[in-house]
Amino acid sequence: MGERRFSRQRERIYQAVRASRAHPTAQMVYEELREQMPRLSLGTVYRNLHLLAEEGALVELGGPVARFDAQLRPHPHLRCIRCGCVADAEMAYDGSLDVQAARDGWQVESHSLIFNGICPACGKESEHLKGDSITWN
Amino acid sequence: MGERRFSRQRERIYQAVRASRAHPTAQMVYEELREQMPRLSLGTVYRNLHLLAEEGALVELGGPVARFDAQLRPHPHLRCIRCGCVADAEMAYDGSLDVQAARDGWQVESHSLIFNGICPACGKESEHLKGDSITWN
DNA sequence: TCCTTAATAGTAATGATTATCTTTATTGTT
DNA sequence: AACAATAAAGATAATCATTACTATTAAGGA
Questions:
Q1: Residues of chain A by 3-state class (helix, strand, coil), percent to 5
Q2: Is the CB of A54 under 7 A from strand D?
Q3: Which pLDDT tens digit goes with each residue over B37-46?
Q4: Which residues pair with A59 in a beta bridge?
Q5: b or e along B23-61 (b: 16 or more beta carbons within 10 Å of the residue's beta carbon)?
Q6: pLDDT in tens, A27-67
Q7: Residues 6+ away with beta carbon under 8 Å from B57
Q8: What is the pTM of this model?
Q9: For chain A, what is the largest distance between any 2 Cα atoms, rounded to a whole number of angstroms?
Q10: CB atoms within 10 A of CB A40
């Protein structure tokens, strides 16, 4: 449990998420940075994404594969049930919901609101193809 | 692509989810049924849970490990950030949100609203222990 | 420059889920 | 009831995301 030190890898990882609008996965960050840092390891990406999330510099989004967001204000997201891409919803985060949801002995801290749908790209290229729907409630 | 046949395994799997209030995972269903059906295979549980979800008899909930619900009316859920358990929120599903969320070329079909918090059991046993927070937005 | 040790790279291990493949069982038909 | 066609099961291997482990590298203070 020592003091945190600077590392160029962590810095680049943070900047990569910041610069992206794709809510990238660890794999996506890894592949992008690898071009410039061929020796980068995937484990390093995972470790640092979690460190950054832990210290509040990033937010981790759920789902079957984790995604990361440098936009710290909580907000709803849109997820494509075809390609899995994630976008920000233009909608405010309603913290009052957390109060309403509390019941029994639950202590509600936050909520995640994810809209499932078809993204512009997928909606265009496939008015015929019927891929597997990956929707969650 | 043949016609669907009856199978006692599928029937029991469906009943197991129906009878549970835990929004069980595939593993949970498997372990429970195994007592009565020692030869049951985990792959069979996964295959049938997905078949049942596909034909609309069950709903699949997201998260790092998939959970299943026989309550078909969409509704928000509570998830414990300590133990991972899932419960129903006593709150109506607001379909009007889906209309509001639509933007650009997105076709929104549904949404999932999950409250993150501490369940009664975890809140009781640990006002001292500080486990890893697993919260998603 | 030297030391301490946090952080990395590389790789093995884990856990959930999916795929493959042989055997079993459902169901329509004799 | 026996038969044939094939959906589904059981067993196991493979895949994918993520985590753990270990020897080496590199912050950063003395």
A1: 35, 20, 50
A2: no
A3: 999 999 999 9
A4: A69
A5: bbbbebbbebbeeeeeebeeebbbebbbbbbeeebbbbb
A6: 999 999 999 999 999 999 999 999 999 999 999 998 899 99
A7: B14, B70
A8: 0.89
A9: 57
A10: 19
Residue with tokens 């640092």: A48
Question: Closest by alpha carbon to B23, among B54, B76, B60, B75?
Answer: B60
DSSP B36: T
Task: Say which residue the tokens 């991972």 belong to.
Answer: B84
CB A114 within 8 A of CB A77: yes
Other CB atoms within 10 Å distance of the CB of residue B16: 20
- Distance (Å, whole) CA B78 – CA B25: 15
Residues of chain B in contact with residue A101, where contact means CB-CB under 8 angstroms, are: 76, 78, 89-91, 115
The DSSP secondary structure of A45-98, one letter per residue, reads HHHHHHHHHHTTSSEEE-SSS-EEES--S---EEEETTT--EEE-SS---THHH
Q: Which of residues 10-29 of B touch A (CB under 8 A)?
A: none
Cβ atoms within 10 Å of A110's Cβ, excluding its own = 17
Whether the Cβ atoms of residue B115 and residue A110 lie closer than 8 Å to each other: yes
